[in-house]
Amino acid sequence: MIAPVLLFIGLRYSERRRHVLKASEDVLLLEAGIEDLGEASVLLVTSFFGERNPSFLAVAAHREHRRLREHHGGDKHIQLIARSPAGDAVGYVDCDGRPSKSPGRPRPYVSDLAVREDYRRRGLATCLVQKCESIVKAWAFDRVFLKVEASNEAARKMYGELGYEVVAMDGAPSKQICTIKKSLL
Ligand SMILES: CC(C)(COP(=O)(O)OP(=O)(O)OC[C@H]1O[C@@H](n2cnc3c(N)ncnc32)[C@H](O)[C@@H]1OP(=O)(O)O)[C@@H](O)C(=O)NCCC(=O)NCCS
Predict the structure, then answer these.
(1) Of 157, 159, 161, 180, which is best to mutate to test ligand 1, by the most ligand atoms within 8 angstroms of its C-beta?
(2) CATH number of the domain that 54 lies in?
(3) 3-state SS string over 126-178?
(4) Cα angle value 82/83/84 (rounded, 5°)
(5) CB of 80 closer than 6 angstroms to any ligand 1 atom
(6) Which domain holds residue 71?
(7) Exposed, middle or buried, 85 (CB in 10 Å: 0-12/13-18/19+)?
(8) Residue 115 beta carbon below 6 angstroms from any ligand 1 atom
């Protein structure tokens, strides 16, 4: 059973990275409570649509906040938030092992992965995904799924390095979505 409030303190995710963080810059990785989801929504929207205008981002963040709140809680479901020493939300991911309501959503499923721009390329996303993998294993699953846009080269490279393989492609030709899978055996 995952501790309900605090998962890890001072997680040193960057040890094998070029940009080694100082101890004082360590990131806290926490199970997100409902009160964290507003910041998580802003992080998601700015990470995925950062170049769009502020009013678009405000509306999108509002919609995301509602979606994350509705999705919150439940057995075999966890939302993780990474916080900087100053307390800012710098990373987020959702890990869901609940039965799927839609045939297009394989389970267990990792989604909504985002890292704040100034915290990228330090291994934080890798750490978040690997943490989801351990959680999924603790739930007694032997594999995990993700979806990623075919054009998202940064994320695809990372998932490839983590051992994920493409098992399906769908969506419009202009916006192909890859379903990727990793065996945890
Ligand atoms: C994709 C994303 C989550 C990666 O976060 P991150 O913390 O920078 O990732 P990591 O530091 O763990 O990167 C691991 C590896 O992935 C690859 N990678 C990550 N970002 C990359 C980039 N911009 N260009 C090329 N390769 C990249 C590299 O191989 C990297 O290893 P390296 O830094 O030793 O070269 C982040 O860029 C992001 O939030 N993007 C916007 C939202 C998004 O696309 N989410 C994923 C949806 S499926």
Answers:
(1) 157
(2) 3.40.630.30
(3) HHHHHHHHHHHHHCCCCEEEEEEECCCHHHHHHHHHCCCEEEEEECCHHHCEE
(4) 130
(5) no
(6) 6-183
(7) middle
(8) yes
Closest C-alpha to 127, from 147, 108, 110:
110
pLDDT digits (tens, 9 = 90+) for 132-159: 999 999 999 999 999 999 999 999 999 9
Residue 173 confidence (pLDDT) above 60 = yes
The total number of structural domains that make up the chain? 1
For residue 37, what are its two tokens? 């989801």
69 in a domain, yes or no? yes
Residue 1 in any domain: the answer is no
Examine residue 167 and state whether it is found in any structural domain, yes or no. Answer: yes
Residue pLDDT, tens place only, 121-131: 999 999 999 99
The answer to whether position 29 is within a domain reads: yes
